[in-house]
C-alpha cells in the first residue's frame, strides 16, 4: 500500500440539499456516513424527492439534529431535525407546520419526508427524467450536448433511471463522495476569480494528498482506501451538476464554477465510492491506498461490457422523453 493522504474534514447533511455540518468523527457503513441525509424534500406535484438542482433555495436552509443521532438512525428511523430559515426562524421536523413553512419559502408545494424503510422501495421511485430535466440539472443551453454518463456502471445506470435516489439513501448515486484539496486547488488556479469553496461540492470527506497529480483521487478509482478503522472503495469520477454554481450563504452565484469544470475536467470533480469495511472515520485519519489493477481495468473496458454500456446509454437516451411542451 502507498500513502494516499490525510482526512482534513468530514461532512454530514441531515437534510438533502440543505447546508451540511462538519463533524470531527463519524461512524460509516454500507449506506454511507451515519445519519447522513435522513430527510429530504419531496415535490408534491412530481411526487418525487427533489433537491437544490431544481430548487436552489434549499441551499440557504440550515439543518441540524435536535439530539445526537442514535445508532438506529437511517432508513425508517429519521431523528428529529431542526430546519433554519434565512430570517432566523427554525422549525422542527416534528412540527405539523413544517411542510407549509417549506412550501411558503420555496414557493412550491413540498413536504419534508424521512428516509423510508428499505422494504418500501416504491417510495424511492421518481418520474423518469426528461432531456429538458437533464439540461436544467446540468445548466445546459438548448444547443449544448447532454453530459456523458458512460462512467457509470450499467447496474448503477439502471438504478438511477428507475429510482429518484438509490434505495436506502437520499444520496444521488453512491454513499461516499471524496474530494482532495489538490483538485480544488487545480480548479481554483484555472479560474482565479471564482471561489471553489468546499461547501459548493458537498463531499463526505476531504483529503490532503501528497500526490503531485492535478486530481489525485481519480488515480484511486478501482483501488481501496484504508483508514485506521474503515475501508472505502473509490469507483468513478463524480460528474457535477449545476448546484456548485448556485448562490448560498457567503458564496455568490458563479456560473464560471461549472463552466471551468466542464471545460477542463469533463464535468467531473472528486470521486464516488462505496464502503467495503464499516467502522469510523475521523479528521486527521491517515489513508493508504491499495492501488487499482490497471491491467484488469483496461481489459474490462475493452471487453463486451463496454459495448453493452454504450448500447444501454443509447437505449436510455432514445427512450428519454424530451420534456418540451408542445
UniProtKB/TrEMBL annotation:
One Pfam match, by short name? MOSC
What are the MOSC domain coordinates in residue numbering?
122-290
Query: PROSITE patterns from the entry?
Result: MOSC
Coiled coil, from the record:
none
Q: Which InterPro entries match?
A: MoCF_Sase_C, MOCOS_middle, Pyrv_Knase-like_insert_dom_sf
Q: Where are the transmembrane segments?
A: none
This chain belongs to the protein called MOSC N-terminal beta barrel domain-containing protein
Lineage, highest ranks first:
Bacteria, Bacillati, Actinomycetota, Actinomycetes, Mycobacteriales
Amino acid at each position: 500500500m502507498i500513502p494516499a493522504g490525510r482526512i482534513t474534514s468530514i461532512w454530514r447533511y441531515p437534510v438533502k440539499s440543505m447546508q451540511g455540518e462538519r463533524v470531527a468523527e463519524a461512524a460509516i457503513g454500507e449506506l454511507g456516513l451515519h445519519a447522513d441525509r435522513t430527510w429530504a424534500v419531496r415535490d408534491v406535484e412530481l411526487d418525487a424527492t427533489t433537491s437544490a438542482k431544481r430548487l436552489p433555495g434549499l441551499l440557504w436552509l440550515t439543518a441540524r439534529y435536535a439530539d445526537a443521532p442514535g445508532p438506529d438512525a437511517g432508513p425508517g428511523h429519521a431523528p428529529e431535525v431542526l430546519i433554519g430559515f434565512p430570517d432566523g426562524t427554525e422549525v422542527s421536523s416534528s412540527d405539523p407546520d413544517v411542510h407549509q413553512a417549506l412550501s411558503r419559502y420555496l414557493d412550491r408545494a413540498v413536504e419534508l419526508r424521512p428516509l423510508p424503510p428499505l422494504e418500501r422501495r416504491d417510495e424511492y421511485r421518481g418520474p423518469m427524467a426528461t432531456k429538458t430535466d437533464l439540461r436544467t440539472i446540468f445548466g445546459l443551453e438548448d444547443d449544448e450536448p447532454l453530459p456523458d454518463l458512460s462512467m457509470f456502471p450499467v447496474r448503477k445506470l439502471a438504478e438511477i433511471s428507475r429510482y429518484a435516489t438509490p434505495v436506502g439513501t437520499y444520496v444521488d448515486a453512491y454513499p461516499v463522495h471524496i474530494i482532495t484539496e489538490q483538485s480544488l486547488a487545480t480548479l481554483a488556479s484555472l479560474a482565479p476569480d471564482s471561489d471553489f469553496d468546499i461547501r459548493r461540492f458537498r463531499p463526505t470527506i476531504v483529503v490532503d494528498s501528497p500526490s503531485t497529480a492535478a486530481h489525485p483521487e481519480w488515480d484511486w478509482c478501482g483501488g481501496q482506501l484504508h483508514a485506521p478503522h474503515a475501508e472505502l472503495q473509490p469507483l468513478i469520477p463524480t460528474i457535477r451538476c449545476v448546484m456548485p454554481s448556485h448562490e448560498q450563504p457567503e458564496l455568490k452565484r458563479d456560473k464560471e464554477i461549472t463552466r471551468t469544470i466542464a471545460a477542463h475536467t469533463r464535468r467531473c470533480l472528486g470521486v464516488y465510492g462505496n464502503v467495503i469495511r464499516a467502522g469510523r472515520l475521523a479528521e486527521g485519519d491517515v489513508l493508504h491506498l491499495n492501488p487499482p489493477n490497471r491491467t484488469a481495468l483496461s481489459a474490462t473496458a475493452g471487453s463486451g461490457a463496454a459495448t453493452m454500456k454504450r448500447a444501454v446509454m443509447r437505449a436510455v437516451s432514445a427512450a428519454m422523453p424530451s420534456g418540451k411542451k408542445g
